[in-house]
Amino acid sequence: MRTHKIFPTEFPEPWASDWGEDEYGLFMGFTYKGVRQDFRWIEPGTFLMGSPEDEAERRSNEIQHEVTLSKGFWLANTAVTQSLWETVMGNNFSRFKDKNHPVDNVSWNDAQAFISKMNSMKEELQLSLPTEAQWEYACRAGTSTPFYLGEQINSERANFNGTTPYNNGRESEFRQQTVEVGTLHPNDWGLYEMHGNVQEWCQNWFSNYPVQPSLIDPIGPETGEHRVLRGGSWFSNGSGCRAAYRDYGSPTYRSGGYGFRFTHGFCASASRVMQKQTNSQLGQVLWSEWDTSEGGDGG
């Protein structure tokens, strides 16, 4: 059972349809038109971001440095599903159609449009993409190994191209498509498929890490050309799924390997800016579409 040392200032929050505590810690869920998404409480802390110099197959842009996240946040326990995406956006352009699979074929701009629409419907959600530091901190869940699963992964525990394993590991299955969210091994904080399945967009512009040995709440540069992608996908090799592995893409680029998960709380400002730009196009949504009935048990 995970025991939190630092707790959220409000729990549960008014928008939660259910909430509780289990072996992974605190959770809250919201339900929109019958589609549920759970969040996990990620308490503040300090960790080593990037990879050590002796990590096999590391890249030069993974320079290890200390990062402190001074505020806790809630992170979706899975990538956004096609079911939730289609319920909110009214379309689904995913390559691998299945309501319980992660939405794919979405750009960073698409993810922002989805988040802005969600926030316009219920402002207190304060959703945004996680920062790159938030993403890696949550993925590692207190570990310092290449994967939250340890020194190696295989296709029984992560969805990637198992025929190109990490660091001369054993070969395993290459499924050649996404899998249903929440079905592979979670990390110690209850987050699923942080390695493989779909690469996940982060809020940051991509750049080299700052030269400072220690950073507090880094959010990256103010401008750039590409946005950060993390976690690897169903077609990535083993090395590309490491916790420290950094990738990037144009904000407008879509791929069958690109998806996202969102955070609640700390990094909502960028989404609120975009929300102001798009509210006039979103129309009115009835509050009755949200299920805020009491909960408390289950996960």
UniProtKB/TrEMBL annotation:
Q: Which InterPro entries match?
A: CTDL_fold, Sulfatase_Mod_Factor_Kinase, SUMF_dom, SUMF_sf
Where's the Sulfatase-modifying factor enzyme-like domain?
A: 41-262
Pfam family for this entry, one: FGE-sulfatase
Q: Which GO terms describe its molecular function?
A: formylglycine-generating oxidase activity
Official protein name in the record = Formylglycine-generating enzyme, required for sulfatase activity, contains SUMF1/FGE domain
Q: Which organism is it from?
A: Thiothrix caldifontis
Q: Kindly list the organism's lineage.
A: Bacteria, Pseudomonadati, Pseudomonadota, Gammaproteobacteria, Thiotrichales
